[in-house]
Amino acid sequence: MHRGYYWSRPQWVTERTIVSERKPGPGEYMAAEIAEQPGRLARIAEARDGVVEVARAIADRPPRFALLAARGSSDHAALYAKYLIEVLLGLPAGLVSPSTTTLYEARPDLREVLLVSVSQSGGSPDLVEVTAAARERGARTVAVSNTADSPLHGVAELAVDIGAGPEQAVAATKTYTATLLTLYLLVDAIRGGTGEHVHDIGKLAEQALERSDGDVSRAIDRYRFVDRIITSGRGYSYATALEASLKLAETSYLAARAYSGADLLHGPVAAVDEDTAVLAVTSAGKGGRAMHDVLGAVADRGADVLAIGSAAESVPAALRIGLPETAEEVAPILEVLPVQRIALGLALARGGDPDRPRGLRKVTRTR
Q1: What keywords sit in the KW lines (predicted)?
Q2: pLDDT (tens digit per residue) in 61-107
Q3: For the chain, what is the radius of gyration of the CA atoms?
Q4: Collapsing DSSP states into helix, strand and coil, what is residue 107?
């Protein structure tokens, strides 16, 4: 039986679902779930009381260190949370290597440590084992997932349901942004915040999708025949670059590689030339400003740069997708929206079905 604080949002009667007797066409689930996000995000931001309750339990016994455990897209959300924890809470934070527990049976002293396990399904055996072992070793454990009755929620002391609703496409879209928003609300509440920077996140997400429609179409036309692409960002936006690389690889089968802007200049830039496409995430703030020199360098080498973000207009690029400006720490929630639509469009343009990528399943079980 689960003990400790628990929060689950109800299934909303306005939830958008696909009900049809015919077999859905390629990408229909993914397209619908991308379109669903503004409404979902608005409801998550409004219903933050449960997150606040979990945050208070954490703040009442402040940790000295934070660890985050995740896989796949959730790992990118965890990296985003790492930035939030270090910058907004002033706590050191690190990403867990699950195999140290599952394969090597390491059992470090985790007293006064906060472990946040992030999983859309909550069913990956390695994350369940890591969370259970961490709790046994003294950690305060928090499960963040989209499945209230999952094994992960069962072994954690505290739990938060991200409330994204059922996701039928294999590629994560609404569960990813819902996870980002939930993690932001959690960290913000731990520091005593009111979530003011995301009060209108649903409206901003709707604007991001509507205003980027034409530029997304142009990007699909421009890059449909590209063979390899580099994605890059700095600070909070590095998580978006990683997620962009994964989405392009798993839906369009592109040879995609993500680098932080700083790492890109430390060697990999030598492989950039006029045959290289670069998807650069650049939003208003310190991370976006740090990308200026990076994009100048890749532009000098002839790369075809697609800039995405609220600061896209201020960097050298062949194509730009501008987004509404927000506080820097919440920008990744919006940055990924046009990326998802580009991944969907490229997959369809290249003859694939992003709802059913070859060799992938919705829940990946690893140990």
Answers
A1: Repeat
A2: 999 999 999 999 999 999 999 999 999 999 999 999 999 999 999 99
A3: 20
A4: coil
Residue type, 81: A
CATH code, domain carrying 175: 3.40.50.10490
User: 120 and 60 in one domain?
Assistant: yes
The model's pLDDT over 249-294, given as tens digits with 9 standing for 90+, comes to 999 999 999 999 999 988 788 778 888 899 999 999 999 999 999 9
Structural domain for 218, as ranges: 201-349
* Cβ-contact 286, 270 below 8 angstroms: no
Residues 117 and 166 in one domain: yes
DSSP letters, 147-201, are -TTSHHHHHSSEEEE-------SSS-SHHHHHHHHHHHHHHHHHTT---GGGTTH
Same domain, residue pair 180 and 269: no
SS3 of residue 27 by DSSP: coil
For residues 174 and 34, the answer to whether their CB atoms sit within 8 Å is yes
Specify the amino acid at residue 1. Answer: M
Encode 279-313: b = buried (16+ Cβ within 10 Å), e = exposed.
bbbbbbbebbbbbeebbebbbeeebbbbbbbbbbe
Dihedral, CA atoms, 148, 16, 219, 206, nearest 10 degrees?
-90
Residues 97 and 27 in one domain: yes
- Rounded CA-CA distance 72/70 in Å is 7
CA angle 121, 138, 157 (to 5 degrees): 40
- Measured from the Cβ of residue 26, the count of other Cβ atoms closer than 10 Å reads 16
Among 149, 170, 198, the domain-final residue is 198
Task: Find out whether 202 and 39 touch, Cβ atoms under 8 Å.
Answer: yes
- Residue 80 burial (CB count, 10 A): 29
pTM for this model (two decimals): 0.91
Same domain, 179 and 252: no
Q: Which residues are within 8 A (CB) of 105 and not within 5 positions of it... i.e. 6 or more apart?
A: none
Residue that is last in its domain, among 179, 198, 217:
198
Q: Is residue 355 part of a domain?
A: no
- In this structure, the chain runs to a length of 367
- Domain identity same for 46 and 106: yes
How many domains is the chain partitioned into structurally?
A: 2
